[in-house]
Amino acid sequence: MAVERVAEALLEGRSGHLPIAGLGALEVCGDAHHGRVLMAHGAGAGQDSDFMRQLREKVAAQGIQVLAFEFDYMRRMQAEGRRRPPPRIDRLVDEMALWCDIVSHPQLPAPWLGGKSMGGRAASLLAARDGAEGLILCSYPFHPPGQPEKTRLSHWPLLSCPMLVLQGSRDPFGTREEAEGYPMPAHARFHFLADGEHDWKPRKVSGRTQASLIDEAAGAIAQIMRSTC
Q1: C-alpha distances in Å from residue 175, one per residue of 51, 88, 116, 197, 200
Q2: Domains and their CATH numbers in the chain
Q3: How high is the pLDDT of residue 229?
């Protein structure tokens, strides 16, 4: 499919796996009853990871259309069968901006921007630069593990859209205790996932499961998007 046809295809109600010339594929999950979110993956795993698959399916079940894409480095990594580091974050921001333009159409709801970890950081930087309808940040990398002094929040004062941060309480990239100590925009909300780590996997002793925490997160995403759409 040509890039120019993507928004029209979405307007026609196309869903599933949509191959796009030169850019890989767009995964369209669900209908946009309560809005749309353009969702980016994290640094180490693409949209085919179990976490990303569960997340988009459960968010879509809430009436939110999820538009999932893969950054170019991830597509090349999968094609070559070997790991490679992501490029500089500014390149990822530009790439996400391109995808946002591709899926946008005057007759469709403006997409929220979202992502897991690095993907959420790229989404927030794009929102700070260009604006956004809203932000969904899953497992935000507040700092590298073990380096709490190296925060990634300098652009947050520029964020003016509604935003939801979904964070495992044990996330090594920012625990609940750490995250609650950061200055947050007035329009931002935290939703902490009890005992979850970076992939929202709790310890057995907690009595919770990763699936139940993803369910909880999907409900929180739907709640904020329904309240603002």
Answers
A1: 19, 25, 15, 8, 12
A2: 3-228 (3.40.50.1820)
A3: 64
